[in-house]
Amino acid sequence: MAAKFNFQFTSDDRRRPLPHKLLLALGPNETVRQITLKLLAWLLFFRDRLQVETEVPDDSIPFIPDLVALGYDLRPQLWIECGDCGTAKLHKLSVKCSESEIWAIKRSPEEAEGLLRSMAKDELRKGRFGLIAFDPDFFDEVAALISERNTLHWHRGGFGGEPGIDEPTLQFELNGLWFDSTFRVWKY
Question: Phi and psi dihedrals of 138, rounded to 5?
C-alpha cells in the first residue's frame, strides 16, 4: 500500500478554485478510508488557508487536526476531524477552540448517529458541532478507486441551499469514473 497519495485537480466550479494538486500521506494506523474521508472533507470545505494535519501554534491545544483553516491571528477558524473521534476530544476542542467551526466527518449515517448519541449522553455543548456522513456504498467505491496517483475533476458540490444546489451533493470524476452522490448533515 502506498504511503502517499497525489491528487491532481481540475474544476468546473468558479466559486471553488481548487489548487492544481494535493498530497495526502498515511499516518500511523491510518488506512485508505482515512485518506478518503480527508479528501472528501477537503473538497467540501475547501477555502484559502485550509491545511491538512498541521500543528496549531497554540500550546493549549494538544491535538493535530485532520483539516484546519487558521485565521490571520493563527487561531483555528475551522477544525475538521475525519473518522474516529471521541466525545472527550470534541469537548476539549469546543472549549479550546471556542470561536471555530468544529466538524466530524463519518463514512456512514450509522457512524454519525452513534457519535450523536454519545455526544448527547456525554452532554456536549449544543450549537458547536456539525457532522457529515456519506452513503457507505458511494464512500467504499471512492476508497477502492484511490491509488498512488489520482486525477479528480470537480463538477460541483455543497451543503444545499446554495445557488444550483438544493440538497447536500457531491459531483466529481475520480480516475475516469463519475460520482454523483448526496450526503447527510447534522448540527449539534
Answer: -60, -50
Identify the pLDDT of residue 2.
66
Site of grid cell 447536500? 168
The answer to whether 147 and 2 have CB atoms below 8 angstroms apart is: yes
Greater confidence (15 vs 103) lies with 103
For residue 96, what pLDDT band results from cuts at 50, 70 and 90? very high
Residue 163 in grid coordinates: 445557488
CB 51 within 8 A of CB 70: yes
| DSSP secondary structure letters along 27-69 | -TT--HHHHHHHHHHHHHH--TTEEES---S-TT-----SEEE
Q: Report how far residue 125's alpha carbon sits from residue 144's, in angstroms, rounded to the nearest whole number.
A: 36
The DSSP symbol for 83 reads S
Q: Are strands 67-70 and 76-82 parallel, antiparallel or unpaired?
A: antiparallel
